[in-house]
Design brief:
By secondary structure, the protein is mostly helical. The protein is 52% helix and 0% strand. The longest helix has 26 residues, at 22-47.
Length: 85
Amino acid sequence: MVDSPSRDGIVPTVSRGESNLPAQRLRVALDLFELGETMLRQRLRRARPAATDAEIEEAVAAWRTERSGAEHGDAPGPSRSWPLG
């Protein structure tokens, strides 16, 4: 069973009884991304209580594009062009 954080506030999981179809795994990944954005918004609201909704959304958009500390991706090692060859 896949639970959506946006509907239930539950971390998404895929039970062992289900087949791990690529679509299910993608849905879990997208749900986790959505949950991460929700958590970021909450952290920004605590850090900036006077910020407007537009300012919070601007900060979230900046986080998506800038990724401080992961400018070249999340993997360790030197950057490589894609596809690897």
